[in-house]
Amino acid sequence: MAKPKTSLTAVERRAEELDTxxxxxxxxxxxxxxxLLTDHxxxxxxxxxxxxxxxxxxxxxxxxxxxxxxxxxxxxxxxLPWPAPEALLLKFVAHHLWDPQRRETDxxxxxxxxxxxxxxxxxxxxxxxxxxxxxxxxxxxNWSTLTKWRGLDGxxxxxxxxxxxxxxxRAAPRQRxxxxxxxxxxxxxxxxxxxxxxxSLRDLRDRxxxxxxxxxxxxxxxxxxxxxREQLTVEPPIxxxxxxxxxxxxxxxxxxxxSSGEQDDVVFLTGRPVDALNA
Length: 279
Description:
The chain is mainly alpha-helical. It folds into 2 domains: 165 residues, no CATH class; 81 residues, no CATH class.
């Protein structure tokens, strides 16, 4: 028999409220989240659901919110303050972006052992070493988004925070990894092109798609599918090793997922990919 609303504990009440949005926002570990998130956290999630925010975005926000609350409790002994002061944001950067070599001689550098053990015990921390800069930036961005949805102003654009992130990344460089574990290499491209060797319109089209996508640095499918003639600009020919001119053109992609600020992405093609595209 269900308890009357008045006799529910705060944790039980939050668990019920999480249940009401579970159909829109599937949440694992509900009971743990009910203990970890505050009443304001749950209310913010309910508000975002009512605003029609996409399911994947909500899942990412919920996951990062849970991590932030867990880290805040472990690092300060209190739930996250809203808005977060600059000092707490700088602490978050210092705990997640650090130099493994300096850690060997300075045990206080990076995330304290007690915080690390706390997060690891709860299953929030699994990898060893500093976080990826992209993960830290994403969590800070979601922290900022959640702050704005609470009607508050944060200090996420402060010069001190930007400088701390930049210096931390420079001090703890990470090996650049391939974006795809199954990236298309030149030999694979050759085998693909061999399947469209006729002069049919379909083969001409497929050759252009494959060669442009490969030669322009590996474009997203949406960028190739949405490519229009007005995005192409003919460039002066570029001489090859023997001095013969090679056709060249620029593709104006506009603002893409990986472009920064107001700058549009432009990529250049030379030689056979240009011939394939012209054909």
